[in-house]
Write a structure and sequence with these properties.
By secondary structure, the protein is an all-alpha fold. The protein is built from 8 helices and no strands. The chain has helices spanning 3-11, 15-37, 40-57, 67-85, 109-116, 120-131, 136-143, 147-165. The longest helix is centred in the N-terminal third of the chain and has 23 residues, at 15-37.
Amino acid sequence: MDGNKLVKKARDGDKHAFAALYIRYKDSLYRYAYYKLRSAEDANDAVSACVTQAYMGICSIRNEKAFSLWLFRILYRECCAIIRKKTQLSFAEIDENRYAVPDGTYIRSELSEALDSLAAEDRDIVLLSVVAGYNSQEIAQMLRMNPSTVRSRLSRALGRMRQFLE
């Protein structure tokens, strides 16, 4: 079924439509949360909280086409809240394979170091673009930035990562 129709049905109270939306987005949500939070447990917590908030607030969505952006904005806020709660962790306590993918493969450690070298907001932009696959317009809506700012920050961040990897 078309995503916009599912959103409309879910907004009208159809639990099966919301379940179908969850199935459609769960992998993307988890993957983004996993890269951002660097922990499977925290990623599951963030996705769970995100889905709960989305379920409770779906009636407020006015534009069915904006559902994905709305959903990822909720997830982004949840991830930020988890990070704020864990600020007492020292960098040394974080696992060396911070960017391990759940299927058992790993991003090269140099690449994870290059990601870590970026400012948090730049890292978010790179992850939303590269991992979640959003374009600059969508990222701008999620992070409440100008699209040209997102494009320039993405370009600079990727350039910094390139230099770091050389």
